[in-house]
Amino acid sequence: MPVSQNPETPSKTMKTVDVICLPVAATNYDAAIDWIFEHARKADRAYAVEAANTHVAALARHDPKFGEVMANFDLICPDGMPLVWSINRSLKKSAKGGVTQLTDRVYGPTLMLKTIEASQRQSDLKHFFLGGAQTTLNKLAERFQRDNPGAIIAGSYSPPFGEWPDDEFERIKSMIEESGANLVWVGLGCPKQERWIAKNKAQLPPACYFGIGAAFAFHAGEIPQAPPVLQKMGLEWLYRMSKEPQRLFKRYLTYNSLFVYYTLKARSAS
User: Quick one: CA dihedral 71, 73, 75, 79, positive or negative?
Assistant: First the structure.
């Protein structure tokens, strides 16, 4: 099911490419951060930002309800190398002259690091971390206070595990409002975080909200990241699966296969 793009999306400022019906921005880190800061400073509404990998893209294509969730996102960056390859193929195919191809993905955990680093000494940009265990949030705070002392970490919150109380959304909303944060990193796991952002987008305080997945655990030093050479080859999934086979084997087998299937299907139809 195609994901219809929000009218106030990066289409006005950067090119998007259909990747198995998901509108992914043909962007790099610098351009993505410029977009994020511009919209965080607008303070007119909540903006949803995602760094999409093959799991997100395949799930959005395969599950119509999750496709509707992703239609609420304003900026979707290419987190996985297969998405970069799909974008470059489309750019090359549609180009009538020279074309600037992407040389790297916009990896969610790195986007988080670069965004926090770029926000240093800018008093109008404030961060809030939502999700993960309190011990993880404590490690994040320690890391960013050490590595990026000029960045403003305005608050964090570890929500309860399992079912949330009926008043949990109002509690989270009040915390974000009181913190003054306009860059909110949501680490609830995929697809829970995307569904939460999309469901509550109209009621959330004005800010950029990021579905950031395992970035909290990566940056807290709790889960190792794949070596750069494997990331560049598009094999990060294999490394992560080797570390957590019971949790990730079925996910990667299913959604990597679906991504390949829908990609080949789209190419045969074009």
Answer: negative
